[in-house]
Design brief:
Helix content is about 80%, strand content about 0%. It starts with a helix and ends with a helix.
């Protein structure tokens, strides 16, 4: 039973670390601020959630303490990271940060012209 719990904890920690590392690679490799923000917010949400779930299971299995703070941390990350990424990308678009040359279609271009009228 104890080794199964260690395997589950290791699984969540490894998955969380994988998402954090892949997000870091995405931030370094993607061409513009919009795709970089997408990589940063998605991977940080999943990565931090995985690490905190692993930590919560570890605390519960070794100390017999239910850590509500870790679960609140997961909830806070799930609620704030996507919203923050959206607001940063919206501010970047409205201030005129250019899209990548590889961008095929700008879906906000029509909305931006309608708001200006």
């Amino acid at each position: 039973m104890l080794s199964l719990i260690k395997i589950v904890i290791s699984f969540f920690l490894i998955i969380g670390t994988f998402f954090i590392i892949s997000g870091t690679i995405g931030v370094l490799r993607f061409p513009d601020v919009y795709s970089r923000l997408h990589a940063a917010t998605k991977s940080s949400t999943l990565g931090v959630s995985g690490v905190l779930i692993g930590a919560a299971i570890y605390v519960y299995s070794n100390m017999n303490v239910f850590s509500g703070k870790l679960l609140l941390g997961i909830l806070f990350i799930l609620l704030t990271a996507p919203v923050a990424g959206h607001m940063i990308s919206r501010a970047a678009y409205r201030t005129g940060v250019p899209l990548s040359e590889k961008t095929v279609y700008d879906q906000l271009e029509k909305k931006q012209h309608q708001e200006d009228l």
